[in-house]
TrEMBL record:
Domain of life (superkingdom): Eukaryota
Gene3D superfamilies in the record: Immunoglobulins
Cellular component annotations (GO), alphabetically ordered: voltage-gated sodium channel complex
Leader peptide range in chain numbering: 1-29
Name under which the protein is recorded: Immunoglobulin V-set domain-containing protein
GO molecular function per UniProt: sodium channel regulator activity
Key words, A-Z: Disulfide bond, Glycoprotein, Immunoglobulin domain, Membrane, Signal, Transmembrane, Transmembrane helix
Domain Immunoglobulin V-set: 33-85
Length: 98
């Protein structure tokens, strides 16, 4: 058996890829506006005011939001809040009970 016999043919791969992308529903985006700065005393409670804008009608049963925190531009993002029909607080040691 030839060593390259198991590799898919390029035409088949492109057809499969096209089929995959035709089955994936298009994403919808939402604009989130927040203040550029927020001054808060370290360790105190604060609310981050935000406004959500979309040109689409938002179906609350299909809407989900993941809120992440990134300490620096090279740091990994940490998810600390999810919204799927209700707010789900994810416990991060960094934020403790806040």
């Amino acid at each position: 058996m030839h060593r390259d016999a198991w590799l898919p043919r390029p035409a088949f791969s492109l057809t499969g890829l096209s089929l995959f992308f035709s089955l994936v529903p298009p994403g919808r985006t939402m604009e989130v506006t927040v203040p550029t700065t927020l001054n808060v005393l370290n360790g105190s409670d604060a609310r981050l005011p935000c406004t959500f804008n979309s040109c689409y009608t938002v179906n609350h049963k299909q809407f989900s939001l993941n809120w992440t925190y990134q300490e620096c531009s090279n740091c990994s993002e940490e998810m600390f809040l999810q919204f799927r029909m209700k707010i789900i607080n994810l416990k991060l040691e960094r934020f403790r009970d806040r």
